[in-house]
Design brief:
about 425 residues; mainly alpha; about 0% strand; about 80% helix; transmembrane; MFS_trans_sf; transmembrane helix; membrane
Length: about 425
């Protein structure tokens, strides 16, 4: 059944500003990751060195995630997000300086590499707070009945940024170089910061100031493990992204296997996000909450098949098509997961639940990057991608067989409760 109000969330001006902030910061982060990947591979010519980028970012993100959720539930989310974006801007500025030939002329490549890794590590701390803060902030901008619609457009804005960020990064590397590409990234972080000033401060729902930090964190974890639909969705996505993510070693495919240069690298890097963005726009008209469990299992299986095809391909455009369809299936998965979280999470626990989600799903991107780099070193690039895709397919089958209740998950009753 088609959605009668696909653009309902846009009636709220603050939501429009929120989407621009979301777009700008994800654009900057995605472009920065691509530019740094390219620079690191140029310095080292090592797939494992690419894996270290993800590992160094994910370590602080995971270590601080639960505490960040605790803070997000007790602070004004607008102000906290401003602090996060300021921190990201400083990291980007540091990378801008580290890629400036005049600044690093007297430094050895190893020292430059270490400096990049340190800044990536610092960015991981910032990222730990951004996820739960953004998730919580949206809940104070829209009425609850519009959460599924808002989640769709929020995810669409993020994925559109992931389309344009990597693509622009790939092209600007060739046009203006790594250094000035970092300048563009810094500019987008400032755009996010300026736009955020147009959103007012938000109330603090969780005012239980007597609760200890450990008790607060335990409460969030207990909720996630008790709510099986939430736990099942984020666990399935985590395993799929952990083993099925091949984007971390795309520079190897672009330079050594497909031999398409920086422009081809940008197209490959953007292809999954293009597919995700298109399917998210379509889903605004045709919501995915009915029979959500079976749909989620199906699309994650499709994601694994797409990555398998990519790993076996030696044709550039077949590889692009495979990555595109991996984005389509991943986009559907993301929408279903975000809708589950928005509908089934109490307002006072949004930050903590989002932080658990960040550990399970968000951080699995970086762990997946390290896994891809490590297995590429041990097995070879192509074999590592085929192995990861196969593990994703096995996980989906095991989940479907082992959790029959998850197969029957349907979010339509939850939405009807919000409308009544």
């Amino acid at each position: 059944m088609a959605n009668a109000e696909p653009y309902a969330s846009f009636k709220y001006p603050e939501f429009n500003r929120f989407l621009l902030v979301r777009f700008a910061i994800v654009f900057a982060w995605s472009m920065q990751f691509v530019v740094i990947e390219w620079e690191v591979y140029n310095i080292t010519k090592s797939p494992l060195a690419l894996g270290y980028i993800g590992l160094l970012e994910v370590i602080p993100a995971v270590l601080m995630a639960l505490f960040a959720g605790h803070v997000a539930d007790r602070k004004d989310n607008r102000t906290l997000l401003m602090n996060c974006i300021t921190g990201f801007s400083l990291v980007s500025l540091g990378l801008f300086l580290l890629t400036w030939p005049r600044v690093v002329a007297d430094l050895s490549p190893n020292k430059v590499l270490i400096g990049i890794y340190i800044l990536v590590f610092m960015g991981g701390f910032v990222r730990a707070f951004i996820g739960p803060t953004v998730f919580s902030l949206m809940a104070f901008i829209l009425p609850r009945r519009l959460y599924p619609n808002g989640a769709t457009w929020n995810s669409t804005a993020g994925q559109l940024a992931r389309v344009l960020g990597p693509a622009l990064g790939g092209f600007t590397i060739g046009l203006i170089g790594v250094h000035w590409s970092m300048c563009v990234i810094f500019g987008f972080s400032l755009l996010a910061l300026i736009t955020l000033t147009g959103i007012g401060k938000k109330p603090i729902v969780n005012k239980n100031t007597d609760q200890s930090v450990w008790s607060s964190l335990s409460e969030g974890l207990h909720f996630v493990f008790r709510e099986k639909s939430v736990l099942g969705a984020i666990t399935l996505d985590m395993i799929a992204v952990l083993f099925g993510g091949a984007v971390a070693i795309l520079p190897v495919f672009a330079q050594d296997i497909l031999k398409v240069g920086s422009e081809g690298f940008g197209i490959l890097r953007a292809a999954p996000a293009v597919g995700t963005s298109l399917i998210m726009v379509v889903s605004a008209y045709f919501p995915l909450y009915k029979n959500a469990g079976m749909k989620l299992l199906s699309v994650v299986f499709g994601f694994g098949v797409s990555i398998l095809v990519f790993g076996m391909s030696t044709n550039f455009w077949l590889s692009v098509a495979a990555l595109f369809f991996s984005g389509v299936t991943d986009g559907i998965s993301m929408i279903i997961r975000d809708t589950i979280l928005q509908l089934r999470t109490p307002d006072a626990m949004r930050g903590r639940v989002a932080s658990v989600n960040a550990i399970f799903v968000g951080s699995s991107n970086e762990l997946g990057a390290f896994e891809s780099g490590l297995t590429a070193r041990l097995m070879g690039t192509v074999t590592s991608v085929i192995f990861g895709a196969s593990m994703t397919l096995v996980t989906v089958v095991a989940t479907g067989v082992g959790l029959p209740a998850f197969r029957k998950l349907d979010l339509e009753p939850d939405l009807k409760k919000q409308l009544d």
